[in-house]
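USER: My hope is that you can spare some time for a protein that puzzles me. I am handing you a single protein, as its sequence and its fold in token form. Walk me, if you will, through where the backbone shape changes along the chain. The protein I mean follows directly.
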Amino acid sequence: MSNSNQPQAKGLKVLSTAIDTAMQSDKTPHELNRIKYKIDVNEVIPKPQIAWSLTNTKSEGEAILGTLGDFGLIIGKAKSRKSFFISIAVSTALGNDAILNRFKSYLPPDKNEVIYFDTEQSKYYVQKAVKRICTQIDQPEPKNLHAFHLRSLNPAERLQFIETEIYSNDKIGFVVIDGIKDLVTSINDESEATMIASKLLKWTEERNIYLVTVLHQNKSDNNARGHIGTELINKAQTVLSVTKAENDTNISIVEPLQCRDIEPEIFAFEINEFGIPVIAENFEIRTETNKNKFDVTNMEDFKKYQLLTEVFSKGESFSYGKLVEQLQIAYKNQFKNSIGINRTKLLITDCSNNDWLKQEKDKAPYTLGAFQVVENDVIF
């Protein structure tokens, strides 16, 4: 459209709005709300814009972690590294590239700013968390990040500050509230819990933003704390749990508890020597317990073949017994964990079924076959 036609177009839009307003001026407030909230089956409603997602490793595609117009909840016990996972979420929202090669942001250019509210930590530690995010995305001072420490405010003041910020910037697309319980005076007050849940629903819908918030789990069980926890779980689009691994406390496991879309895969992270969260490789193996043994046949195919490659780097062929021994050694080298004889035999059977292990005849030595993957009777 040419510049000369723009004023005319704006005038027509203003006139149209004025006519619509005049036509509705004789309606009661309820009649106006009825028009606003009634569902029309013929209306074309676009799918919600994805805010962030997690790429699958065991199947094709990705899982949606959140969309604009909705909110998510992260729960976990104290010191389970919930705030480190929040760093991953904020880094994802800010970054142009996939974070940790798995987390992606789809925020549109006109909704690409992020607000990060921390209600618990001092200014020093909130800044430390922000610097961690800057390191994660390799940007010394991201212009689309606005971080605030609200520890010194009372609950009502925090609530008012957050609401004002959310409504003061139309470019905001991603909001984090680390410490939702600090917006109420009691986590067991039903009216306050309902009020907070209603606020999140209102903010996200009216401002078309995605909001993720954090809440502690009870010490005695894995439930989110108080009435506010129950209310938020019932309303959230996605609920993720962060838990320290039982036998390797360096690893935090994130698993879906509730999702409206397809559940994301369970994943895990740990903190590297620079204080940055990174994906915990082979976490299923590293965190297995006697009560919860990892099924070796569910290991990614390329990892099984890596074990075989290490074994056959020490010889061209092995008897069954020697193959078991060498696989146990390779497994310990690669995954820093031991594997019993029975599970090693199961792994050998699985590799043989995939033609990665070859025998000329029964009881003959095993040799290494070519790596290939069979899906639906098609060899790749």
